[in-house]
Amino acid sequence: LSQTKPLASVLKDVCDAWSLPNAERYALQYADGRQTYITESNRRDIKNGSILRLTTSPDQEAEQLYIGIQSKNVDVKTDSLKKLASLSQDITFAQEFISRNGLKQIYSIVEEGNDTGEMLAHTLKAFTELMEHDFVSWENLSTVFIKKIVSYVNMNAVDASIQQLSLSILENMVPTSRLLFEVVKKEVTLDRLLTHLQATNAQLQLKAMALLIALLLSATDAERRDMMDYLREKNIRQFIHKNIIHSSEPLGDEMAHYLYVLQSVSLNLCEHRMKMSMDAFSQEQRDLLQSLRQTAFESESEVPAGTFSTERRRSLCAKEFRKLGFMNNSNPADDLRRAPPGLLALDNMVYFSRNTPNAYSRFILENSSREDKHECPFARSSIQLTLILCEILHIGEPCSETAQAFYPMFFGQDHFFEELFCICIQLVNKTWKEMRATQEDFDKVMQVVREQITRTLSLKPTSLELFKTRVNALNYSEILKLRQTERLHQEETLAVPVLELREKLKPELLELIRQQRLLHLCEGTLFRKISSRRRQDKLWYCRLSPNHKVLHYGDVEEGVQSPPIESLTEKIPVADMKMLLVGKECPHTKEKSSGKQNKDVLELAFSIVHDVEECCLNFVAPTRYEFCLWTDGLNVLLGKEMTSERTQTDLDVLLSMELKLRLLDLENISIPDDPPPIPKPPSNLNFCYDFSHAEQ
After folding, report:
1. Least buried of 38, 429, 521, 623, by fewest C-beta within 10 Å?
2. How much is the pTM?
């Protein structure tokens, strides 16, 4: 294929060679993979070795299928719809078909037809693929069409594949406009979605969860709160914990993401209270505050009102609030004016006092009776702990588009946030005693508590009970040991000779890191495609050839871990690579014009610019670790420096190990900053043995 000749001329030459008239009725298409049509706009993407075939042109195919789907013959109509569903993935064909008002025919098949079999499945599949190209707005759909799609979701006697496609269509529809959201929310009840969630078909379950999440994310705060309350009544948490998280089937990436979003949406219901300051004039809030005092000092507060004067009673209350650990004991509401954590801290304290009254009383009385300045202030600790938990659990932050980091124990417990607080506030008291802390050590104690919580959460405990056991086992002395171990790993001798040795070792170790990066690229990585509209479930794989000269990539099916290099049909010669773009410079991050660019996608995005036309191959790495290894490896191939933070970390680890090995013999010997002076040469060299006289 000559890339300098226009495609029309190339097609004419091929048709002439095979004596085919009307060359304009033909087109070239990839023989393998997705079988995309070749156009003037994408011809530069053709790689050496790609096999192309002559086929009917997209406009001819579109015309034939447009007629075929209107046929009275059921078999012709079904076959046409099946072929349409397959070809609609191609953007060139989709343009041609839509320009012929083809979508109108699809609408009428759905709106007028009563068929729920194979024909309908192909119709919905074709519709989904055509809408994927974003040529037509979802808001153009008629009410009849939407109601028909909704009816397939709500009917029982419908094939699962049709229900999956219908749920997927509604999921795409919901975020596009408020009107469509309201229609879907009204027509597809939460009860119906919960029924689909309980299906044994994993794909149907996944699509139902996807629609539920789309509805939650598009709802207003008030609607979201009502929906979450209803789901709580219906025990969705228990169902997810038992049937999805602990199911016999492993949890897929997509479902893990939806569970993360559900957890995030649920925790973000606390945001309203977290951002609300205490109002000293609110009777309800003052009653909550007083209940803390009354629960702790019940017997003392039962003295009849007439026994003390108002001044004496005020003085007694102030004393009791001081014992509770409020900084401003005459007006404790002042302590709760800081937002965040705002009223959420008060809610947590009240929950702790009402649900675990024995632990609450023990905490207060144990510390209020100590006069040695070692008392742990309950209120002050609770306010700071609530803030720490909000930061760790990302309350008030928008959901990530790709994250999958949910906590299994979240779905194993009602009132998760409050119960977690109850465990952690008792941990504060325990750590305070272990550190023999005073009021001046407050920040240090809270820092240790934060570390205990984050280290334990990183182990992903499956229940709060397990979390409680592990976090209590991670006492202050254990934290000190861990810190000491980590410090020893980081520490290096800073003597000048050692620094010089370090500099000499660097080039050799950097070469080792380069080789490791290239080996990782040769093994390859599975990447996920993310469109501007929604999170995609399409996968593709990319790997470097063993001779480091060609990048191979191509689409793969779910579940394929390491496809052979021969199955990856697309190629980019390393010699054609021009530069590497990361983050905001990448074209696929600029394309997202939603305004609110997702931070974690920006951090994981990179692109390779290649060819004369400066085409781009766009990546979104699955993790930060993969991002570092791939950007480093590509920089090595481009002959540039490795710039990722991982390079520095790996270099530091290797240098540390190498230095320790080389300095083993110098253990406990102090290395001087300056080398010892070199002695003067001797006055003569006669002490040297003369080998020229052989011994007799």
Report:
1. 623
2. 0.70
